[in-house]
Every structure is written in C-alpha cells, then in structure tokens.
C-alpha cells in the first residue's frame, strides 16, 4: 500500500475496488500530543493542509502522522457497483478458505501489534485504551471465535432419507460506518463480515480517519487479495457520514447498513433502511449497570467500576452507574473515591494516563447540576482542566467525577443514571436498605435491583459482583436487558467467542441482540436434498409417524452425503 513506515508520514489514498485512487484533497492528522501541547498552532497547521493553503515546510512538519484522501460522491457510487459485481465471486470461495482469511488476519495483527498501538496513540487513544482495543481485536478474530462461526454457519443431518442443511448465506453488499469515538475497533466488524462472503464498503470518518485507513490499507486489503477476493470486494472511502448514508440508502447495490452512532440517529436510520429495503445493523449507545452485592470482592468491583473512566468515559460499553448493596455501599464508594481522585490527565503515550479530552464538556456540567439538584452528592470532580491538570474554563479535560445517590426511585429521576453519559462520570446508587436483615429482605432488595437493571432503556452489557450462587443465578437467568452479561470480571474485558458489542433497547434498536458479525450479515437458509428414490413424499413418516396405526417411531437421523461427497464429514 501507499503508506510509509517508521516515523514518516502515512499516506492513504482512496481504496476504490481494491485499487488506490486519488481523492478530492486530504484529511491530515497531527499527532494528538502535539494538539494538546500546542493546540492553536497545530490546529492551524492542519487547517492549512486540509484546505490546500500550506507552505512547503508544512508538509514536512514533524507533528504530522498521516493523511487520508477524501473520497468523492462518484467514487461512492463506483465502490457500490464494484462491490455488487465482485460479491458473487467472493461468496463462491469456500467458507473454510474465507475463514482462513480471518485466521491470517489474526496472526498479522499479533505481528504488528506495536505498530497498530502506535497509530492508535497518535490518533489520541491513551496507551491503556489502545491495549484494550488490541485485545478486543485479537479476541474478535481469535481461532476459537472463528471455530464458533464455522459451526454456526453450517449444520447438516439426515432425516427421512433426506439430507437437511441449515446454511447461512451472505447478505451481499454491506456498508459500514464506524464509530467516531472508537473507529478502528468498530471498523474491525468488517473482517468477519467479509469472511461471511459479503463485499464491504467502509467509510472512514473524516474527523478521525487514520486508524481505520491503516487497518484496511495495510492489513485487510493485502490479505483479501492473497485469499482470492476480487478487487471490488473491498473499498475504503472517507467522506461525511450523512451524504454517504443517503447514497447507500438510495443505491440498489447496498444490502446492509452497519451503523455505529447515537440512539436517536440509529432509530431514524433504521426507519430509512426499512423504507428503502435495506437491512439495518445498529450499534448504538450504552448505559451499563454494574451491580455490587453484599458479598462482592470489593477490590475487584472497584477496578471494574474504574473502567468507567477509560478514555474519559467515552466508550459505549463502559459501566455508567453502580448499584451497591447498602451493606457494602459506603466501603465500596470510599475505595472507588480514592482511586478516582488519583486519576490524572496527561499525554496519551503516558502509560499511567487513561483520560482523554471530552467532546461533550458542557453536557457534563448540565448532567452534574441536574443530579445534585435532585439529591445526589457530588464526591469529586466535574471541573475543566488543561493537559497539565490546571483548572481552565477552556480546558479540554473534565476532572473525573463521582456521584452518590441514595434510593432507586430518586436515581430514576436523574439523567446521570437513566441516560448514556459520554464523559468521566460514575454514579453510585445505593438502594433503600430493608427494614429487616432477614434473608427474605435481601431477596426483595435483589428483586428491586434486577427490576431496575431490566427497566434501563439501554441494553449493551451489564455486570455483577457477588459470590452467592443464588444471586449469580438470578442475575444471569433473569436479566434480559443487554447483549452481554459479565459476572465477577472486567466489565469491558473481551474474550474469544463472547460478543464484544450488540445489545437491546436503545443500544441496538428493535433488532438488537449480541452481535456476531458472521451471523448479523448473513441469512439462514434451509435445504432438503432427497436421495432420488422416486417414492412420493410421506408427510407423516417424515415427522416420525408410521403409515399404519401404532406407536410413533422416530425416523432415523443420519448424515447423507451430497452428490460427489463422501459419507464422512
């Protein structure tokens, strides 16, 4: 590809049907640390370069990391047409060979892990956030994840002398719009989408395009070509989201729209997708609960709650509020408070830093003021600071905030608890203590807590810290809200096979569920193949009922080979 290595400028043209193409100008990306240390001059440099007003020295400025070409409307249409033409050829490549592409990607990701993290840090992700994103990428493409996908995409067995197959077939052309807060990780959903037999058009967000362009230009595209994908299978564009979405909706060559964004935008887009005959795959907002029971490992629970502040809380799957049992609420809150006040701002390459500049700083103050007005106690944080931690009304950082509110009913009135908050703010909710310490009272409290979790309008993931098997069973059995449930574990931690994203309610829309991209971008098809005996179909016999009266005898279930196949799998 057209990217330089080392510290030289990374330069990514439009990738149109697998071929580098000139765009309409460039989006330049300066190193995020330079923006934080010398904001005005660095932003001015970017503006001169982006608007073609730069001098000769500007192009060699060491603050620059890379540039990504802006695509045109004509290129968006051409990418869709090329994808439609290439997809049937790619889908005919055997599934196992397409899955080998994912396995090869996983190995390449491990080999180039340090390079990927350097791109993420340059883009503005703290080192700890970059490590988490890398772990999620590795688990998404882990061999065990691929093995699960292989088993889920094809099943076959024999019934009534016929081969019955359940096969997932690709939807066709999938258009992917990554999240602005985590572009590389969300764009990675395109890798299993491709392996499922789809063609893919990706729109790298112009506001933060570098890691997405790196991922597809340097890792995905070469591997696709090596595994026999025709050039039109992949295109990578870079244009504003709204006009691109309109193009996808209007095109007969787009089958699925895979969208990451806010719940309101997702609901609007879902309606538009259905009106235009497109399949909506929505990955939207999150407002996760973390439940801390009376017998919880408090040290572990505090560390999980502290994940709220990773990336300054601008991760959709971070815990947003904690429900702490009254018996341990004060101890839990005090431990968490000590940890929160120790967090500090700084440059993203500092291994101790987890905080990033906050986009919705004004909204953070509004949410805090609303919570305090409704009876919450502000324990710390909420003020604006600069990169050195000094108070500043124009500072890009928000000092980590911690709220405490007593009572579920009171908490249910606060936006800090009921809505997604995209800033470094955790609210500890202490349910009303029961009048009696009897076990029955704890059951009633658990009823109230589980009901509160299920009443949440969002449903990305929820977690529990408890040792009592009864409590764990009730949580995992009765919490229907959320695509993922975690117990006594990192809230944001990822594992092979376990879905990373996907959820219910405002987190995934009406079609929301835990998201396995192999499955979400395919459709189930049933196939029955008779052996050619020429006998008429006996409906009752096929259901295990003999022709004559008598006891029901189950039909034998054996694997019958397709023509040209052996009888063994």
TrEMBL record:
Species annotation: Streptomyces pratens
Lineage of the species this protein comes from: Bacteria, Bacillati, Actinomycetota, Actinomycetes, Kitasatosporales
InterPro entries: Ald_DH/histidinol_DH (IPR016161), Ald_DH_C (IPR016163), Ald_DH_N (IPR016162), Aldehyde_DH_dom (IPR015590)
Keywords associated with the record: NAD, Oxidoreductase
NAD among keywords: yes
UniProt-listed Gene3D superfamilies: Aldehyde Dehydrogenase, Chain A, domain 1, Aldehyde Dehydrogenase, Chain A, domain 2
Occurrences of domain Aldehyde dehydrogenase (ranges): 63-508
Region (Disordered), start-end ranges: 548-569
Similarity comment text for this entry: Belongs to the aldehyde dehydrogenase family.
Protein name (database record): Aldehyde dehydrogenase family protein
Any Pfam family: Aldedh
């Amino acid at each position: 590809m057209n990217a330089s290595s080392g510290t030289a400028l990374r330069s990514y043209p439009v990738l149109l049907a697998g071929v580098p193409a000139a765009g309409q100008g460039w989006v330049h990306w300066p190193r995020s640390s330079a923006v934080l240390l010398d904001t005005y001059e660095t932003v001015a440099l970017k503006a001169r370069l982006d608007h073609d007003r730069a001098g000769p020295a500007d192009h060699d400025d060491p603050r620059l990391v890379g540039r990504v070409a802006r695509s045109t409307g004509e290129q968006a249409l051409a990418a869709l047409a090329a994808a439609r033409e290439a997809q049937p050829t790619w889908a005919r490549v055997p599934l196992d060979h397409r899955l080998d592409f994912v396995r090869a990607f996983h190995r390449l990701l491990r080999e180039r892990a340090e390079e990927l993290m350097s791109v993420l840090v340059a883009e503005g992700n703290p080192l700890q956030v970059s490590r988490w994103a890398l772990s999620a990428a590795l688990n998404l493409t882990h061999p065990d994840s691929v093995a699960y996908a292989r088993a889920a995409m094809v099943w076959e067995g024999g019934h009534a002398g016929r081969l019955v197959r359940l096969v997932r077939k690709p939807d066709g052309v999938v258009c992917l719009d990554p999240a602005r807060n985590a572009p590389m990780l969300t764009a990675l959903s395109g890798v299993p989408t491709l392996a499922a037999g789809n063609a893919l058009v990706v729109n790298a967000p112009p506001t933060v395009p570098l890691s997405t362009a790196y991922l597809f230009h340097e890792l995905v595209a070469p591997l696709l070509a090596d595994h026999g994908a025709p050039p039109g299978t992949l295109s990578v564009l870079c244009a504003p989201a709204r006009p691109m979405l309109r193009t996808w909706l209007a095109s007969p060559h787009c089958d699925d729209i895979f969208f990451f964004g806010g719940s309101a935008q997702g609901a609007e887009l879902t309606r538009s997708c259905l009106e235009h005959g497109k399949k909506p795959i929505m990955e939207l907002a999150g407002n996760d609960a973390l439940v801390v029971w009376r017998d919880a490992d408090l040290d572990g629970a505090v560390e999980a709650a502290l994940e709220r502040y990773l990336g300054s809380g601008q991760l959709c799957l971070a815990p947003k509020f904690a429900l702490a049992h009254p018996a341990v609420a004060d101890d839990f809150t005090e431990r968490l408070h000590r940890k929160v006040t120790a967090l500090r701002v700084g440059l993203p390459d500092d291994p101790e830093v987890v905080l990033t500049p906050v986009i919705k700083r004004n909204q953070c103050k509004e949410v805090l003021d609303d919570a305090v007005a409704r009876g919450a106690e502000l324990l710390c944080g909420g003020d604006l600071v600069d990169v050195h931690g000094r108070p500043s009304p124009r500072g890009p950082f928000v000092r980590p905030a911690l709220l405490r509110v007593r009572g579920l009913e009171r908490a249910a009135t606060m936006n800090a608890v009921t809505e997604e908050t995209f800033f470094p703010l955790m609210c500890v909710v202490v349910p009303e203590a029961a009048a009696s310490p009897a076990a029955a009272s704890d059951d009633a409290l658990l009823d109230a807590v589980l009901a509160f979790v299920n009443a949440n309008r969002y449903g990305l993931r929820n977690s529990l810290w408890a040792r009592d098997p009864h409590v764990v069973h009730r949580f995992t059995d009765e919490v229907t809200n959320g695509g993922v449930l975690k117990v006594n574990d990192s809230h944001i931690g990822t594992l092979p096979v376990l879905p990373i994203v996907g959820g219910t309610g405002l987190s995934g829309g009406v079609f929301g569920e835990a998201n396995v991209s192999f499955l979400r971008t395919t459709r189930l098809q049933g196939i029955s193949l008779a052996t050619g005996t020429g006998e008429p179909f006996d409906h009752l016999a096929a259901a295990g009922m003999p022709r004559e009266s008598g006891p029901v005898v189950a039909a034998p279930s054996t694997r019958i080979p397709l023509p040209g196949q052996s009888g063994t799998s």
